[in-house]
């Protein structure tokens, strides 16, 4: 995604203000997790990965601020979300008005509940826009169509020249803004898509090839199918990390994000949190993305004294950028002292907080080296870590 400027080429509006009452879930469907990742986050990532899109404006329900913040945590920065309206048209209009300061040439309008939109589809739709002309993906109807009365089927409906419509739909920004304004003025506020709003005032919409995979998640069976579809495109990877730090003079040590009072500290360029360092390296290992030293060189003075949660958060951001998710983390601390047991649960909670995962996915263990080696002599602490992640198979 390109940098924003005073005037941009193409903006995208993602509609995520609906309640999704037919989905069978207790929360709005755009925040339901698919294989551990919220639907909205998947949709945003698809648009952020496209070179066609210069800016993304999300529309959310006013009650969903916390859900939204959790869903976008760790993603590249987005403009503040626009509060949605009671109708889809109202939400689109509010988002279009919010884009006026950047005045895009083209705008793509997309339902956030379609998380599998491809980069190729975004390019096709954007390329279909011209002066006074919008573009929409559509798929020709192939099934036999019948009318029905109650439980009885009646006559067949000819399927020639019939298409199922998808999003994103793309338009010249000024034209679609004006069309939505006019529709609101005359009380036409329940049209089912933006192409209908555009055509209401004599504008044309061209058809571009849609995609079967660009499904809209509506009912429980849609989510079940989507989970199966994702599972076939993901692979499981493991990574391991190892770190040691020697003791120095001090009165506390940092271990797994928790400060523990002790008669010494751990020496290092940062806060020397051996547990978080091992976990960070394990994530980099699963990604085949170097190690902690290549991302945060100890020769660089800006990292002196840095809290190690900064390093672990960065590794998690790298994972998110690759479309991956964390399955579990496991760290083992090797030392004679201090005692780890009294702090174990606090460490697990802190790691879960940093990585934004459930604490049930985090394990912290401790052992001694039976008085053998440098840890047995009380000269320092060692840590071993292992992580399991899921990544898109093409990576």
Shape: elongated
pLDDT under 50 segments (min length 5)? none
* CATH topology assignment of the largest domain: Spore Coat Polysaccharide Biosynthesis Protein SpsA, Chain A
Count of domains: 2
**Arrangement of strands in the largest sheet:** 5-4-1-6-11
Task: Explain what you see.
With 395 residues, this protein is of the alpha/beta class. The strands form 6 sheets. Strands 5-4-1-6-11 form a 5-stranded mixed β-sheet, sandwiched between helices. Strands 16-13-19-17-18 form a 5-stranded mixed β-sheet. The protein has a 3-stranded mixed β-sheet with strand order 10-7-12. 29% of the residues lie in helices and 29% in strands. The mean pLDDT is 92. It is elongated and about 85 Å long. The protein has 2 domains: 10-231, Spore Coat Polysaccharide Biosynthesis Protein SpsA, Chain A, CATH 3.90.550.10; 235-392, 2-C-methyl-D-erythritol 2,4-cyclodiphosphate synthase (60s Ribosomal Protein L30, Chain: A, 2-Layer Sandwich).
What is the secondary structure topology, with strand pairs?
Layout: E1 10-16, E2 33-34, E3 37-38, H1 39-48, E4 55-60, H2 65-72, E5 82-83, H3 88-98, E6 106-111, H4 119-127, E7 133-140, E8 145-149, E9 152-157, E10 163-165, E11 169-172, H5 173-185, H6 194-199, E12 204-209, H7 220-231, E13 234-249, E14 252-255, E15 258-261, E16 264-266, H8 274-287, H9 292-295, H10 309-321, E17 325-334, H11 344-355, E18 362-367, H12 373-376, E19 380-392
Parallel strand pairs: 1-4, 1-6, 4-5, 7-12, 17-18
Antiparallel strand pairs: 2-3, 6-11, 7-10, 8-9, 13-16, 13-19, 14-15, 17-19
Helix pairs in contact: 3-5, 8-10
């Amino acid at each position: 995604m390109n940098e924003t400027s005073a005037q941009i080429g193409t903006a995208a509006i993602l509609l995520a203000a609906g309640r999704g009452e037919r989905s069978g879930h207790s929360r709005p469907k755009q925040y339901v997790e698919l294989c551990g990742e919220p639907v909205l986050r998947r949709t945003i990532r698809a648009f952020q990965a496209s070179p066609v899109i210069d800016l993304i404006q999300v529309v959310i329900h006013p009650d969903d601020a916390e859900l939204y913040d959790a869903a976008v945590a760790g993603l590249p920065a987005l403009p503040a979300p626009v509060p949605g309206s009671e109708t889809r048209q109202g939400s689109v209009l509010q988002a279009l008005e919010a884009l006026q300061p950047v005045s895009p040439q083209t705008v793509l309008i997309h339902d956030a509940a379609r998380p599998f939109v491809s980069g190729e589809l975004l390019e096709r739709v954007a390329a279909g826009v011209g002066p006074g002309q919008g573009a929409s993906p559509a798929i020709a109807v192939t099934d036999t169509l019948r009318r029905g009365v109650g439980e009885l089927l009646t006559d067949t409906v000819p399927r020639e020249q019939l298409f199922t419509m998808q999003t994103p739909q793309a338009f010249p920004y000024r034209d679609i803004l004006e069309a939505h304004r006019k529709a609101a003025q005359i009380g036409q506020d329940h049209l089912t898509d933006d192409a209908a709003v555009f055509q209401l005032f004599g504008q044309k919409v061209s058809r571009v090839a849609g995609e079967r995979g660009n499904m809209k998640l509506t009912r429980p069976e849609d989510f079940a199918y989507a989970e199966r579809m994702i599972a076939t495109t993901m692979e499981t990877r493991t990574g391991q990390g190892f770190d040691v730090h020697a003791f120095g003079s001090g009165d506390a040590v940092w271990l797994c994000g928790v400060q523990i009072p002790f008669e010494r500290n751990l020496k290092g360029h940062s806060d020397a949190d051996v547990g978080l360092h091992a976990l960070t390296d394990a994530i980099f290992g699963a990604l085949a993305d170097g190690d902690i030293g290549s991302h945060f060189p100890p020769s660089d003075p800006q990292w002196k004294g840095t809290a190690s949660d900064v390093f672990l958060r960065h590794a998690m951001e790298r994972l998110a950028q690759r479309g991956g998710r964390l399955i579990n983390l496991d760290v083992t601390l090797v030392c004679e002292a201090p005692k780890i047991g009294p702090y174990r649960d606090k460490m697990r909670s802190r790691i879960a907080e940093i990585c934004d995962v459930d604490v049930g996915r985090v394990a912290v263990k401790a052992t001694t080296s039976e008085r053998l080696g440098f840890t047995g002599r009380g000269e320092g602490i060692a840590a071993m870590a292992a992580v399991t992640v899921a990544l898109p198979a093409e990576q």
